[in-house]
Amino acid sequence: MERIYLDHAATSPIHKDVVQVMADSLKEFFGNPSSIHHYGREARRMLDDARETIATSIHAKSDEIVFTSGGTEADNLAIIGYAKRHRSQGTHLITVKTEHHGVLHACEHLERDGFDVTYLNVDEDGMIRMDELQAALRDDTILVSIMMANNETGVLLPIKEIGDLLKDHQAVFHTDAVQAIGKYPIHVDELHIDLLASSAHKFNGPNGVGFLYKRKGITLDPLTYGGEQERKTRAGTENVAGILGMAKALSIAIQDMHARSEQYEEFREQFLRILDENAIEYKLNGHKTERLNNVMNLSFEGMNVESILMNLDLSGVAVSSGSACTAGSVEPSHVLTAMFGNNDRSKSAVRFSFGLGNTIEQVIHAANAVVKTLERMNARR
């Protein structure tokens, strides 16, 4: 049985060229980048090259890139690090109810420390209202954190408009770009972004490594204490092999971005066409046009989402849901709950996400597997 992976928004397979780069680096660049001898200098040189590659991909400067263990740490470092360093300027933050938990839980931590956080609502398309953001801004607002692309629906938020709004305000603008980078063009100056989080495993790099873009002049309190790595922002010996793999993966993703986006749109259209031809009832969740092409979130109302996932897995198709099973009950995704409320649409959603290695034949097979699964489940009702 062929197994088909359609859960690239959760994590993505490592590109073969990235594996080679990492394997070579583990053999050749094993020195500690902080050491002054030959081996340390060679490792440092490779880190500097990787930093430049990553900075170029988002039109930043190399000294504005801080290496982290992934997107969650980058989000935490940006939000908690900035808030605690600049508490004297204000204690108010703004974010959105549909953010990744790496952002939401960081904000909740700050609330326990005396900060005030405004959580913006979204409409049924998953979009914020710019007038609500403007109304939420206060004189003591020091940070606004709004993701670039939602991890469950693929919805692209109005980052340019947000950046323009904040240009004349003291609040810095942080965005979680974990889902967007490598799939959507990013120019940090044109978008007026001050802090940006990313993670390698979302664009065919390794797990456990990511980066934070930190605009020059912005200061953060570190989350870890020890050495003076990453310009005293993030202590700990750098993961050289992982960072080199991340840089290689990102350069490939940027190079192939346009072609991949067109391919994923074709996958999406073919998948939905098969559902429509078989009269499958579904609702497409998220904005119709402001979205990533590789993420598709569908609700099959009246169906048990756990049964859908289990049956698809038995058919060799790996997908996911924003729901989590807790003590025998399904809790709906916080993203879909913010969009639609705590109802059947929120509880019956499945996320299909395309990526490296997928073919149109696999997409057709997967769509037909969904049809068979739902017809079988309907017959049992």
Automatic annotation (TrEMBL):
Transmembrane feature ranges: none
Keyword Glycosyltransferase in annotation: no
Catalyzed reaction equations: (sulfur carrier)-H + L-cysteine = (sulfur carrier)-SH + L-alanine
A Pfam family that the UniProt record links to this protein: Aminotran_5
Cofactors that this protein relies on: pyridoxal 5'-phosphate
Domain Aminotransferase class V residue range list: 4-363
Keywords, comma-separated and alphabetical: Iron, Iron-sulfur, Metal-binding, Pyridoxal phosphate, Transferase
UniProt enzyme class: transferase
One MF annotation (Gene Ontology) recorded for this entry: iron-sulfur cluster binding
Listed name of the protein: cysteine desulfurase
Source taxonomy: Bacteria, Bacillati, Bacillota, Bacilli, Bacillales
